[in-house]
Amino acid sequence: MQNWIENELETSEIGDTRLDARYKIIMNDLSQKPSFSIPAACNGWKDTFAAYRFFANERTDAESILKPHQNATLKRIQEQKIVLAAQDTTEIDVTRRHEEMAGAGPLSEANRLGFFNHTMLAVTSDRIPLGVILSQIYSRDMEEFLNNRKNKKNKVKKRKQKPIEEKESYRWLLGYQKACEVQSQCPETQIICISDSEGDIYECHLEGDSGDNNECKADWIIRACQDRSVQGVAIGYTYPKLWLEAAKAEIMGLVEIEVTGNEPKSKDSRWRRQKRTGRITAATVQAKELEIKAPYRKGQKFSNVKLNVVFVSEAEPPEGEPPVEWLLLTSLPIGTFEEACMIIEYYCCRWQIEIYFRVLKSGCKVEDLQSESADRFIPCLTMYMIIARRVMFLLMPGRKCPDMPCDAVFSDDEWQSVYVIVKKKQLPEEVPKLEEIVKIISGLGGYLGRKHDGPPGPKAMWIGLQRMSDYALAWRTFKAIKKPYIGRKNNCV
User: Which terminus, N or C, of the chain has the lesser number of Cβ atoms within 10 Å?
Assistant: First the structure.
């Protein structure tokens, strides 16, 4: 059993000691071979059958599986001064050619079936993942989806009349409320909830507006999507708009940002989804305090919300491409250029949850799981969410803490086996640095480590971890053999 599993699942209380023990065994098997199928990862039919029975048990729901990991994550958060809680949603496509999984619903199209997984991942300001704070896994109703497709106008009209609690977007508000709950449990740690443009919902701004309320609130950063009206001198019935007012603010300075490349989306006309060249570019930084006017909601009356705005605009975009613009809404202070740049840096850390989803789907291959129903699939998916965080954690300290001794992360059997096999040398007198072992492990996954190469990526890491687990198993086995078998004398040459 790996040491980290004992620590991670220490507070597991599914309700049966046998289930708790089996939970650790399955986690140990799957984490050593995250991209393998369950039968390939488990040790034979007995353990495979036990794993399937575990996921089919009514006690092993997503909440009971994730709970011990959340408790361990809370302890790690309490050790930090600042923690970023990045939330986002990803599709889990489980479409099958010959069968349908019971409980799966339509995704973007009726012929694509699966689930939506809204996750909140806690990371440090150095981008080291601490764990999953919240997971909301849900599916859409097929009949309602088809009716909305036929009557798009009625769908928009009905949607505007619904309270936030009846909309899918309610998940963003629940995410921020969870961040506030964590803030109350970790008063010595500053929690900053970060959302992409999909989380630009007025109810979220209203929830984050502390006002005269003494309730413990998490700070937040949301990338703006809606060009809302702001308080100011109206021209007729038209109030000033958010984007224009932010662009009027004084330029505080220039900041260097990295822009990821993007391939065009044929069915999406939004400029953000069109072709974009990857580059490192200079952008102007502007900041201002604004008051957003409350939107109309049938049967409800909202108050205006005061918030801080940081406007980032690319100074010299490539020819033929629109400039990259970020309009960040936040509760954090923006009085100085350094404070505004810190908000930009925090928002860039949101990209870690995108990497996390990639590890979950491409590394752990959760979309290839063969389950008959959602009741069995979702608990298994939740377990792989814990494993995906572990893969990311092994990758990031090698970048941020390269001089850390490798035995702080890997067991002796793990680092010693890969060191001897790859280096073809005797073990060193001193424990190697973490950076060296991470490069060796990722090298097993295809990382070349040339001068112009960047740091190891998650794909090379999860492949390398699988090979490392086999080496470590052989290493432990050989050490356990006290008297090696030579053979009978009459068969010796």
Answer: C
